[in-house]
Design a protein that fits this description.
Oligomer: single chain
Number of strands: 20
Helix content: 40-55%
Number of helices: 21
Shape: elongated
Distance between the termini: 37 Å
Structural class: alpha+beta
Strand content: 15-25%
Strand order of the largest sheet: 3-4-5-1-2-15
CATH class of the largest domain: Alpha Beta
Largest sheet: 6 strands, antiparallel
CATH architecture of the largest domain: 2-Layer Sandwich
CATH topology of the largest domain: Beta-Lactamase
CATH superfamily of the largest domain: PAS domain
Radius of gyration: 39 Å
Amino acid sequence: MKIDKLEIAAALAPGLLLGLLGGLGMIGFSATLEAPERQALHAMLAPRGALLLLGWMLAAGALGALALRLYAQYVAAPARLAESARALAASSVQRELKAQGGAGVRALTGVVNELVRQRDAYRDDVQGQVALAARGIEQERSRLAALMSELTQSVVVCNLDGRILLYNNRARLQFKSLSQAPTVSDGSELIGLGRSVYSVFDRKLVAHALESIQQRLLRGAAQPSAQFVTSSRAGQLLRVQMAPVRDPAAGGGPLGSGPSPAGDAVRLSGFVLMLENITRDFESDSEQDRLLHGLTEGSRSSLGNLQAAVDMLELPDLDAPMRERFLGVVRDEARAMTTRIQALANNTSQSLKTRWPLEEMLGADLVQAALRRIEAQLAVRTAATDVDANLWLKVDSFAMLQAIASLAARLVEEFEVKLVQLRLQPVEGDASRAHLDLIWNGQVMSTETVMSWESSPMTVGNEASPLSVRDVVERHGGEFWFQRERTRHEAFFRFLLPLAQAQDQLDASALMHSDSRPEYYDFDLFRASEETRALDERRLVELAYTVFDTETTGLNPAQGDEILQIGATRIVNGKLLRQESFEQLVHPGRDIPPAGIPIHGITPEMVAGKPPIAQVLPAFHAFASDTVLVAHNAAFDLRFLQLKEQATGLRFDQPVLDTLLLSAVVHPNQESHQLETIAERFGVTVVGRHTALGDAMVTAEVFLKLVPLLAEMGIHTLGQAREAAEKTYYARIKY
């Protein structure tokens, strides 16, 4: 056993202490004697005193060394054996433990190694059986892949919290094009397993579509669906079709299994979104409409003048000067029409007001949804009166609800209305339209007030829309006006809306072949519930993580060192998602010290032309949003990010876990907690060391090995893990 200087000092310390105590005791004893007796005692001990004290110290030192050796063999060695055995149990790598300590501990190490060999043999047998049984599951996955490849739309499947649990490669590419943030890495900042779809879509819009589907399920629809059109933050126009995923545990059965009994609540576990970017098609259609409108309306007067001139030219007694005058009119009007057509053809960059596709919806459902929204947002009573239950409307229901709620909010705030009612009836003599009335009792309203409300942007509380009520009405090709009924002492706003046939299914015949494949899915996320508990109370196995690492010009962030590279990967539902990664070289804005190049391998030529940190951090911030950060020696990496907060305006304020600290919690008796040492302890293969993404991958695998060991210690939640990590010695390290 190797004994270093510290161990020698620890062994001699008891001897020195005992020798000092013995010397002090002898001095105290001699002080109690008379002078002659004291002199006689000193004379007797003087020749042998030094030898006696030295022998006493050597004997005490030998006892201390023996005690230290016994501690190492029978206390430290078993503790290290226990920690190594636990790490081996948590890994799947076949390796043997090194024999250390006394004979008993060495024998115990041999027994552990034998048990590990037996476990590995049983594990190989079980894995063979599992592989055989998994072939059927793999066939189902292949069928799913083939089915997804037939879809032309981007497909995203979410749970009820809006967490993405499946998406195909076409969706990944489309989300990349929708991103407004700089696409510096692979452009996958918006989509990923466990990420929120509400980073792209308005939460209220999705909730409204889900509510519509739920109502149709309650009415017995076998395959309900909804659609809406929205614009992305980058200005793209998207058509979204939504279909529900029923919860099998609730007894709902698969979709298409038949209607639910009347009155039974139908529980959903998620929803499917099929996305189609219709920006280009819409712009093309709008331009065609604009050109047609210009040709028909702008040329109407010219055609009238031409017709009048031709009629005059047909008169037989028309004299020559008059004939020449009318011929000039023909020439001028023909020239004007030619100029107008040419101008319209050249001015193709202009666009008309946005036209949005409408959906079929039961009018009574729209009324009930509007009443619920008004009651939830405004301190006012509501009621439905004279609602025809058989009317189907063709509307943009989300925009209509905004318009109705906005008008109701104005009535409550400016006229202190206490009761609003909604009425829905067909228009007499017109089988294609119905009128929806917002009714109230109150004071007289001026025409100027009505026009102001109609043309100003819609607002309800803190919610605002760039659209006006007039925009919504024009979108439906309808009409809007204010009217009073003096006999009833009522006033109302009337919307004239188009009717539709009762149709509760979407035509999917337009979906054609595509080579898109469902490469990313995790159906276990259906069981996730994001809003049920506070983050610190969430179990570690339930959380989503972004594991990251940085390569830097040096080790002193406060003294001017900068980030050279950021690499990150995700852990969702206890799985390392290698395909969802972030890796980006960064121009540091300063020289790279030559001494660090052999370590990280990043040369000045590699970062030439790369984006600066001010451009990279927004993309990484989006990639890591709504997740827990994980890093090895996280204080070092976070310090670099914190120093950029003021310049970028971005804060990484989510919780952070450090694998260095967690390793010290799980294995307090180990001599080293370096990343390579921990990886070797768990049997994790180190690939790409000292590259940001490579280190992030190793850190992620180490973290997954640490989680079950923390659970064995009673550390199950994020809060418990953070509290335990803060108590370790390494938590005191600052940068």
